[in-house]
Amino acid sequence: MEKKQIRLTVNGEIHECTVESRKTLLDLLREDLKLTGTKKGCDGGECGSCTVLLNKRPVNACLLLAVGVDGQEILTIEGLGKNGLHPIQKAFIEYGAVQCGFCTPGMILSAKALLDENASPSEMEVREAIAGNLCRCTGYEKIISAILSVSREKG
Do 92 and 113 sit in the same domain of this protein? Predict the structure, then answer.
């Protein structure tokens, strides 16, 4: 199997890795960098549990090859909470938006990308931003309320 040397910044730290050409970003994060907060769900881009921010944009890490993110910047849930809980994480706890927690990292990172771009989104904009993140435990209402509460704090 062909291997390639890549360099990427993950959660503010530069990593140089040798990866097989078919290795996904998700597997690189979980297996090589031991960042298991990014969840492996459907492994086909359908559930959003593997959502990370690539250059501040939400992406499904299971769909990207690690070699394709050479030189890029990645933010995972571990990086978001690096210096204590982020306001979005606090809101998820406060509003009871976490149940099993499997979808939570992807939801939170999708919400961060939205709020970084639009500090005062409408409920519909929040719904659209998290549309690629499936949750089997909640009815989404507490998740949406938590995200909207952070937007009100910012505004």
Answer: yes
Q: Whole-angstrom Cα distance, residue 70 to residue 144?
A: 34
* Angle between helices 141-154 and 87-94 in degrees, nearest 10: 140
Q: Rounded distance, CA 31 to CA 34, Å? A: 5
pTM (predicted TM-score)? 0.94
For the segment 51-99, what is each residue's pLDDT rounded down to a tens digit?
999 999 999 999 999 999 999 999 999 999 888 999 999 999 999 999 8
Domain boundary among 24, 47, 80: 80
Residues 98 and 64 both lie in one domain = no
Coil, strand or helix at 8: strand
CA atoms within 13 A on the CB side of 47: 16
Helix (H, G, I), strand (E, B) or coil at 11: coil
Q: Measure CA 14 to chain center.
A: 19
Say which CATH number the domain at 44 has: 3.10.20.30
Query: What's the chain's Rg over C-alpha atoms?
Result: 15
